[in-house]
Design brief:
With about 850 residues, the chain is α+β, with helices and mostly antiparallel strands. It has five domains: about 1-70, no CATH class; about 70-120 and about 330-470, no CATH class; about 150-320, no CATH class; about 480-515 and about 740-873, no CATH class; about 530-725, no CATH class. Helix content is about 50%, strand content about 15%. Strands 15, 17, 18, 19, 20, 21 and 22 form a seven-stranded mixed sheet that branches. Strands 3-4-9-6-8-7 form a six-stranded mixed barrel. The longest helix is centred in the middle third of the chain and has 37 residues, at about 380-420. It is elongated and about 125 Å long.
Length: about 850
């Protein structure tokens, strides 16, 4: 081991065989001269001193010798590089294959590492980002729990008094109608306190941010994206009045392009606080820690405060705990496991690429045995040969890395465009920068040493370079053969791990697609819109508009039937809460959705009626209030009893109003096919009296013929009733549902792409190893054929060797995949990490394609003419 390290160090740190010989000459000269002087009567010390005086002359001789031979270290490196590139030009097939193989591995790694570095590692673009935290509630309510709950306005006002925070702000995000410039449109609006911008230490690019006196005032700040898109980057936008949800707002500022908090916000308005209201808590709280205060200390202070406040609240309003985490962690924490899985996958791809190139270099080094022998005969030591071969592998690595990094720069925008919305936070910050380029360069050097070291040591073995005629064309060293076989085993095992992971995700996605959402989703066209409180100030105004629009839609040709709902399945809106049952003193511990629907809703959606009836003309605004509940509510609240005729309320249990249950319908998955269906309590749209729940509405129509034509007609009818009304979206409900499947589809597709790339690289490696062995054993095959071996025997010989290696790789891969699959458990739906069908399918698939890859050179070996094969020896 010590000798091997010395050889490697000599090769890497400019120690040539000639320099070693000159050093030996120097030591011999000094010792000989010292002995001569000592024999002349001088003491040993004086003899040594005088001998060293002659060192200058010897060193001069050494320098002249080195100059004469042209062996200065930079010159040697240049000579090695020139020789390497001449070899690359003479073997273009080898060079292109090696460079492209490595480029694919480096490209995948650079692209994924760019995302990881930008999303997970890069600090937030704010001063002292480590002191920024998010505060949230953690709790449980019956069978339901939450981990990032919001706060009510009074909670925020109390939190501002804590010493743990130097500054605190609160935000709430929704969508708003924007009109005044161009066509009416929808924009993501965040209502924030004026303390948000000073807390984050950000300033506006134009105009100003909010002042304390702006809180609750009709002013607005634009994002750079909205300013450039809707307002065409007009510098005179400051001071312009724009309508936001029907209320005129004066634009006072434009934020810089890099500012994006809360994520995807296009418009900021001041938040109007309600200090006495704990209903409809939607506020997210962000704070800046005071100097010397940790997140854990801040959590303890907030917990103590909320515990004292919570004593005066009913049980359903109390939070079980408080969380305080860094702002970056709150933004990217949920996506970290996925990105780390992708990073591990591309690392496997790069390792497979390295093993492929190592196999290529092993074959090339074996083929250059006579060349190495001649170089050794002319005086080159093993260290010199190792350095030459390592120079060639590093040159290949640099070429492949440069090409891979260029491909990553070109392909990254296309990759990011393929990412579904809201899957990756901070995606606008992702770009290939200096850090990524440096890591890619380091990876190139590391991979160059990784795939070049073993071939270099193998190609410079003493028995190879000193006996140029002892190895025939058919000779393959046992050590070399074991090394090449080990690389194939490693490739196969890595491919097994990647494809098992991809197979598990694909099966999970397939099962998720087959989940029944609880309604018929075919030919359902939806249109969502919002009414401003300024143009439609009362419940009566809103309901009248919805009735007129619904009547118009039902009269359209091609619309079989239509209805309206304020909580569309797989739409953007979502709210839920508690309720109380008549005869109970406290609300239930069940969280339910509370949609208001018009007549025919259950028929249009295809939601089955289990008991009783659905809403009809009898359920007018002045009629007794009624409700329809889902099966989950009936089972939970009245187990083994008839729910019809029971009464409940979704407001204060001491005041009502009380709703009589008139029907039970099937369960509907509201926004996530992988989650259990949310229990629902439906109320008639005409009997909804809360203005808040009537601001946004979705219309659903089942198309008899062309859904696209019906979608255009829906938009036209809405604009005909109110030209200033911004229609949020018109699309098929099936597309909304498909959009909810985008994250699992994306995970499965990316891991499958990496797995298939790894499989292709591994098959190229298996083919190359088999073809190389066939070439090197041509004489052996010829002798076998001359002695009467049949074609089938030759095929078994060649394919059996390859499949033996593949079988060993599959065995090792199964063990590794069993451990790796557990990492994916949180991404799986209705599939276990140890799913035997997936493991069996992947194993069989790899074995089949590996057999095909080795069969091609095996057939070529079986067709060898014995006379030609023997003559080649």
């Amino acid at each position: 081991m010590r000798a091997w390290l010395r050889s490697l160090l000599n090769a890497l740190f400019r120690r040539s065989r000639y320099e070693s010989e000159l050093d030996e000459e120097l030591r011999f000269h000094l010792e000989t001269r010292a002995e001569q002087l000592e024999r002349s009567g001088l003491g040993r010390a004086e003899a040594d001193r005088r001998a060293r005086l002659e060192l200058g002359a010897v060193e001069s001789a050494k320098e002249r010798c080195r100059d004469a031979r042209g062996l200065r270290w930079p010159d040697e490196i240049r000579q090695d590089l020139r020789f390497a590139f001449r070899g690359f030009r003479r073997n273009p097939g080898f060079t292109v294959t090696a460079v492209l193989t490595l480029a694919l591995g480096i490209c995948a790694n650079a692209a994924v590492f760019t995302v990881v570095q930008s999303v997970l590692l890069q600090p937030l673009p704010y001063p002292e980002p480590e002191r920024l935290v998010m505060v949230y509630t953690v709790g449980a309510f019956g069978p339901f729990s939450w981990t990032d709950g919001p706060f009510a306005d009074p909670d925020y006002l109390e939190l501002r008094k804590l010493a743990a925070f130097s500054e605190v702000a609160t935000v709430t995000t929704n969508e708003a109608a924007v009109s005044g410039t161009g066509d009416p449109a929808r924009a993501v609006r965040s209502a924030v306190t004026a303390s948000l911008f000073p807390l984050l230490r950000v300033r506006s690019a134009r105009g100003r941010v909010f002042l304390t006196e702006d809180e609750g005032s009709p002013v607005a700040v634009l994002s750079d994206r909205l300013w450039r898109g809707r307002f065409k980057a007009d510098p005179a936008v400051i001071g312009r009045v724009e309508s936001v949800d029907g209320v005129p707002h004066t634009i006072v500022g434009v934020m810089p392009p890099a500012f994006d908090f809360p994520p995807n916000t296009e418009l900021w308005t001041p938040l109007r606080l309600q200090p006495s209201s704990r209903h409809n808590a939607f506020n997210r709280i962000v704070g800046r820690l005071a100097g010397g205060v940790s997140a854990e200390q801040a959590r303890a202070q907030v917990t103590a405060l909320m515990t004292s406040v919570g004593r005066s609240l009913p049980p359903e309003k109390r939070s079980a705990g408080i969380g305080v985490v860094g702002l970056r962690e709150s933004l990217v924490g949920k996506v970290r496991p996925l990105l780390l899985v992708f990073l591990a996958a591309v690392a496997c791809v790069l390792l497979i690429a390295c093993t492929n190139i190592a196999n290529l270099l092993l074959a090339r080094a074996a083929a250059r045995g006579q060349e190495m022998s001649v170089r050794a005969t002319l005086g080159a030591g093993r260290a010199r040969l190792v350095r030459q071969l390592l120079t060639e592998s590093l040159a290949l690595a640099v070429l492949g890395g440069a090409l891979g990094l260029a491909l990553a720069r070109l392909g990254l925008p296309a990759l990011l465009a393929w990412v579904p919305p809201d899957v990756l936070p901070r995606i606008e910050e992702v770009r290939v920068g200096g850090v990524v380029s440096g890591v890619a360069f380091a990876a190139c050097l590391l991979t160059g040493l990784l795939f070049g070291l073993a071939p270099a040591l193998s190609g410079s073995r003493r028995e190879l370079v000193q006996t140029p005629r002892t190895r025939g064309a058919s000779g393959i060293g046992r050590a070399e053969r074991r090394l090449r076989g080990g690389l194939v085993v490693a490739q196969t095992a890595l491919v097994m791990v990647l494809l098992v992971g991809a197979g598990l995700l694909l099966k999970s996605f397939w099962k998720l697609q087959r989940v029944d959402p609880g309604f018929r989703r075919d030919r359902l066209v939806t249109m969502s819109l919002s009414l401003s409180d300024r143009r439609y100030p009362t419940v009566e105004h809103k309901l009248a508009f919805y009735d007129r629009l619904l009547e118009r839609i039902r009269g359209l040709p091609g619309a079989g039937d239509a209805s309206a709902v304020n909580l569309l399945p797989f739409g953007l809106q979502s709210w839920n809460g508690d309720f109380a049952i008549e005869g109970q003193d406290e609300p239930t511990t069940l969280i339910v959705g509370k949609p208001a629907v018009s007549d025919h809703y259950f028929r249009v959606m295809g939601i089955p009626l289990r008991r009783g009836r659905v809403f009809d003309e009898r359920d007018a605004v002045d009629a007794p209030r009624v409700a329809v509940v889902s099966e989950a509510v009936a089972r939970y609240c009245w187990p083994g009893q008839d729910p019809l005729g029971r009464r409940l309320t979704m407001d204060d249990a001491s005041k009502g109003p009380w709703l009589t249950v008139v029907g039970v319908v099937g369960e509907v998955r509201q926004d996530n096919l992988a989650a259990d269906a949310l229990p629902m309590i439906y109320v008639p749209l005409r009997q909804e009296y809360h203005p808040f729940f009537l601001g946004a509405m979705a219309f659903v129509a089942r198309a008899d013929a062309d859904p696209a034509r019906l979608a255009a007609a829906l938009r036209a009818q809405a604009r005909a009733l109110d030209p200033e009304l911004p229609v949020q979206r018109v699309e098929m409900l099936d597309r909304l549902l498909s959009g909810s499947l985008a994250p699992p589809r994306f995970r499965a597709a990316v891991l499958l792409a990496f797995g298939l790339l790894a499989l292709v690289l591994a098959l190229v490696g298996i083919y190359g190893v088999t073809a190389y062995e066939v070439t090197r054993r041509t004489g052996e095959v010829g002798i076998r054929r001359a002695l009467g071996a049949q074609t089938s025997a030759v095929l078994r010989l060649v394919i059996g060797r390859s499949m033996g290696l593949v079988a060993a790789g599959l065995a090792a891969g199964i063990v590794a995949a069993l451990a790796a699959a557990r990492v994916l458990e949180s991404f799986l739906f209705a599939v276990t990490p140890l799913d035997p069908a997936t493991f069996a399918a992947v194993t069989l698939g790899i074995a089949c394609v590996a057999a095909l890859a080795s069969a091609i050179p095996a057939r070529r070996a079986a067709r060898v003419d014995p006379a030609v094969a023997l003559r080649s020896e």
